Amino acid sequence: MDRMKLSPTTPDEPRLVVAGGNRRRRPKRSSRACARCHRRKVRCDGAISGFPCTNCRLDQYPCTLQPTLRQTSRVKQLSKAPIRSPQRGTLPQAKYRSNIGTITKGSLLFDYPCLDASGLKRLTHEKIVLLETQGCLRVPSRHALDALVKHYFLYVHPCLPLLDEAAFWREYRCTKAGGSGISIVLFRAMLFAASPLVPVEVAQQCGHETLLLARDDLYRRAKLLYESGAETDPLTIAQTTLLLSYYTTDSETSTNSTWLEIAIESAKEGNAHIYYSVPSPSGTNSTDLKRVWWCCLIRDRLISLGMRRPIQITPDEYDLPQQGLTFADLEDEAFHSEVYGLDTKTALSQVLASLCHFAVTVTDMAMIVYPTVRSRQSDREDPRKKIEKLERAKSALLKWELNWLEHMEGKDFYLHSSLALCCNLLSIYYQSARMAVSNHMCRLITMVKSLEYEDLKRIEACRSDLVTAIGSTAQKVKEFIIHGVADKLPISAVAYTMLPQILLSIESELSKTPEDKQKREVMLVLFVEINRIFSSRYYTRRILDITWRALQLCQKASLSDEEASRTGLVLRADCSPVLFELRLTHYVRLLRYIDEVMSTLDHPVEKVSMLCPVDLALSDHVDKLGPSIPTWMQSIEETYLGREALHTWSSSLFLSWSPADDASNASADSSESNEDADAFQQILECLPLLGE
Questions:
Q1: For 308-416, where are the alpha helices, taking DSSP H only?
Q2: Of 176, 175, 177, 152, which Cα lies nearest the Cα of 163?
Q3: Residue 212 burial (10 A CB sphere; 0-12, 13-18, 19+)
């Protein structure tokens, strides 16, 4: 009898060999093995049947190619040299932290038939090598990729529908080449935009310890791919750069506005701004143009309102009466979405329509509160006339609230948590605009020659609006936490929650009764929790520094009760006097300080907090120099509050910050995670104190 033995090919699949007889033909050997099969020393069929290989597919493991010796040597060589930026693009280079493992990890773009990489044919060999060695031509494993794409359409797309979701899914699920494909440059930007919104486990599957590191790395790859010139279609460039406008850091504060400027110019080059009156280019339709232009408009207004900057798309550049995006523009994707049902998609389209109307409504207000350089130079209008214009802008905002916001409050939240996210975020945008109007009204009142009774009534109305807006914003933050969507907020929410937190802190500090103080401190707990969540996804040190400095300035400028009574600006006792314990001129200077610091472009934050590890030895020398206040911040403070005040203030409060100094704190150990869980439990215990 022939003897038989088992000769394993894989740990789970034996191969039968007949001794003394005809042996079964050995399977063809693959020229390359994936990293997992190479590590396990088993046969890999990836190069024959395609990746993922059979072993990884059956075991449900990510399948990534093992880099060749030639590749790894080239990567090591280039990793020692600075990244060379192509001539195209003038955006500042950020400080990225990456390693060779994360660069070479992942599947090649060419392994996905749905991706259009035809633009790479135009690039030189040197650029291709650079893109490959920097990981720009690789994407995460299929599991991580699916998670990123899913979260993009769950939380980015509803309020920024740049592309047709139905068309995207048709291309993405395609297993054979032949369609138009998805631009690799745009796809890279989509992965970046979704990166802060996925669970941290997805970032770890991509080779990153934290979401912040994953976001930085995906941005770097998308930026390099854009700068290479691989994409030439103006509409695709506009879509890509709009998504990249979600990037900003503590030291690169104007990056979002720069990307937006590129997006607007590219959209105009593709005639998106006149989508309603010109024939669509080949391969596109008027709805595609309309999507791009209205997304430019939305991003422009939100960046202006959050960063206190002039709008880039002025009313003379588009036709205001044109209708914004509606369900009719999104009808196809509503029936073919892979992340939402029809009812949810319909409700989200109503939120989007409200957002488009808000972008139009807030235009006049933004032109008054944050005027362009040209209008500022030619503006010699009397403050009284400006007040009248601001009153009309305020009425327009109130009309928008009645028509578009009130009927959405709490409606259809049961369908999906993203409805609570989008509706409450839109409400915060509105409350921010409302606060901007009230604060600018106070500025204009200080510019009039003599105060009248009507001015005092306006001050009282402004104070009432501010208190209401602060309370409403705190309520929305509470709902984010309750509905479990606080970790899905976009980066714009960081700026939009800053001023309410500052003013609420002022109220808490100057509260005269224990009850008022406790109520405001409980509300502040919500902002502390939301800032903790932000710090693991976005750079928040600059915002927190501004907050601490603003509070210090406020404490020094606050008046005693006797001094306030002598100013004549204390109103009736039945109105909350807390905010106006600050003299009106000091309060206005505080507001101007915040606006100037927020809108100032690309100034470094506190140097001590930005020292590299090799420079830590310098910190002792820096400390010996005395309180360190950034030059740009000091100059603004000297302008608004005087030079002598700066020398009497301690900077210890400004330099001290605990949970979120840098990205390293986001990768806390298990003990810190337990502390976070305890802190979150305390947050939940505080929520009932705020009422329903």
A1: 331-335, 342-369, 373-378, 383-400
A2: 152
A3: buried
Cβ–Cβ under 8 Å, residues 197 and 488: yes
Neighbours of 609 (CB within 10 A): 17
Query: Contact 358/173 with Cβ under 8 angstroms?
Result: no
Chain-centroid distance of CA 688 in Å reads 30
Q: Where are the alpha helices (DSSP H) in 152-183?
A: 165-172
Beta bridge partners of 14: 8
Q: What is the DSSP letter of 31?
A: S
Q: How far is CA 220 from CA 45, 91, 121, 670, in A?
A: 33, 11, 21, 30
Cβ proximity of 635 and 603 under 8 Å: no
What is the per-residue pLDDT across 322-357, written as a single tens digit (0 to 9) for each?
A: 889 999 999 999 999 999 999 999 999 999 999 999
Q: Where are the domains of the chain?
A: 4-59, 69-90+98-317, 318-477, 497-607+620-665+676-692
CA Rg value for the chain: 28
HSE-up of residue 484 (Cα within 13 Å, Cβ side)? 4
pLDDT tens for residues 575-625? 333 454 677 888 888 888 888 888 875 443 332 222 222 222 323 332 333
220-246: pLDDT as tens digits: 999 999 999 999 999 999 999 999 999
- In degrees and rounded to multiples of 5, residue 155 shows phi and psi of -125, -15
Angle at CA 186, nearest 5°, toward 531 and 242?
Answer: 50
Collapsing DSSP to helix, strand or coil, 13 comes out as strand
